């Protein structure tokens, strides 16, 4: 399904949702940029900030968003995602990374990776251990971005990694297996994308969730013709958001009893029955990994939401200025 244009705008104070999201967008670009269309601040920041005691050497280097929101509990696949207001030159990225220190209550190997010149994500080599407490201390005061701008604030975010909740979706098997801390919880019947509008493969960390989302086929370029069999304009419940390009796990009135018996196929989303969609909505949180296999489509790009684990570790390090490191100790 496709969501009405004008995605959610999230301030630095809130959990980061990447804007421009449209649901079940089978007709959208195969790569949604995570570096140029992230949320704009619309309220007061919650990060700790203090002005530089000295006059900066040039215009300020500021951050638009830090994800996740400070004080939140997230899933094991959640990266730390930092979005800058202005481009950071390649020559300055290693220095900027070294001033964005990640500490944890138990040592974790990880690294920063740049998506374009404004977004930098830090992810562990493997998933976070459940129960880990994490702190980002971005001491950017006086740090240059390589383009004549200098940091004037320090930023601190803390969060906790909660239960290890995972969902594994088999497109061909029409099932979603949900586990919590390594133990099977439930296996649900699903329908994924049709051959014309296949679902992304790969692992996508939950971006956010909403009880209702207005979805339209026109907003994702599928069809604006009300006479088309692919036209829809619906408000649907229990929506778990997976990609910026518009993949959701949710209930659809057009596919009320998904599974191998119906196998109708969606416009790219994963459909659950109404009761299963409500149950799944209540189980997952931002950062929980949903892994989809068996689709004819490629893996979602790593910056299409928070699909960071779709890159192998060598690929991840290739986009890092300072390379692999181990978290500091909390």
Summarize the structure.
With 330 residues, this protein is mostly beta strands. Helix content is 7%, strand content 32%. The protein has three helices and 21 strands.
Description:
With 330 residues, the chain is mostly beta strands. It is 7% helix and 32% strand. It has helices at 93-98, 274-283, 313-318; strands at 60-61, 63-67, 73-74, 80-84, 100-104, 109-115, 119-124, 133-139, 150-151, 154-161, 165-170, 175-180, 183-189, 202-205, 208-216, 233-241, 248-251, 270-272, 289-293, 325-326, 328-329. It is globular and about 60 Å long. The N and C termini lie far apart (43 Å).
Features:
five-stranded mixed β-sheet, disordered N terminus, five-stranded antiparallel β-sheet, globular, 330 residues, mainly beta
Radius of gyration: 20 Å
Biggest sheet: strands side by side, in what order? 2-4-7-6-20
Shape: globular
Strand content: 25-35%
Mean pLDDT: 85
The percent range for helix content is: under 10%
- Report the order of strands and helices: EEEEHEEEEEEEEEEEEEEHEHEE
The total count of helices amounts to 3
The counted number of beta strands is 21
Major beta sheet summary = 5 strands, antiparallel
């Amino acid at each position: 399904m496709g969501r009405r244009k004008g995605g959610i705008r999230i301030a630095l104070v809130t959990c980061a949702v990447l804007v421009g999201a449209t649901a079940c967008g089978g007709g959208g670009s195969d790569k949604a940029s995570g570096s140029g269309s992230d949320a704009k601040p619309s309220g007061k920041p919650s990060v700790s900030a203090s002005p530089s005691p000295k006059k900066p050497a040039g215009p300020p280097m500021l951050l638009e968003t830090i994800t996740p929101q400070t004080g939140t509990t997230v899933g094991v696949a959640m990266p730390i995602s930092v979005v800058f207001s202005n481009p950071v030159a390649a020559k300055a990225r290693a220095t900027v990374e070294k001033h964005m220190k990640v500490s944890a209550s138990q040592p974790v190997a990880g690294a920063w990776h740049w998506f374009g010149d404004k977004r930098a994500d830090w992810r562990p080599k493997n998933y976070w251990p459940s129960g880990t407490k994490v702190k980002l201390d971005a001491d950017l005061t006086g740090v240059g971005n390589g383009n004549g701008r200098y940091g004037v604030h320090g930023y601190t975010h803390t969060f906790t990694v909660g239960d290890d909740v995972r969902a594994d979706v088999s497109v061909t098997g029409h099932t979603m297996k949900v586990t919590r801390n390594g133990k099977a919880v439930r296996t649900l019947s699903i329908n994924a994308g049709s051959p014309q509008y296949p679902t992304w493969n790969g692992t996508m960390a939950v971006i956010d969730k909403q009880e209702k989302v207005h979805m339209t086929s026109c907003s994702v370029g599928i069809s604006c013709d009300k006479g088309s069999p692919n036209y829809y304009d619906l408000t649907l419940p229990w929506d778990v958001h997976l990609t910026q390009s518009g993949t959701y796990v949710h209930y659809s009135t057009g596919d009320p009893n998904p599974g191998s018996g119906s196998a109708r196929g969606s416009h790219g989303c994963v459909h659950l029955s109404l009761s299963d969609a409500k149950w799944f909505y209540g189980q997952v949180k931002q950062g929980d990994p949903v892994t989809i296999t068996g689709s004819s489509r490629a893996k979602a790009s790593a910056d299409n939401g928070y699909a960071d684990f779709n890159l192998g570790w060598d690929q991840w390090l290739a986009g890092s200025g300072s390379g692999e490191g181990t978290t500091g100790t909390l």
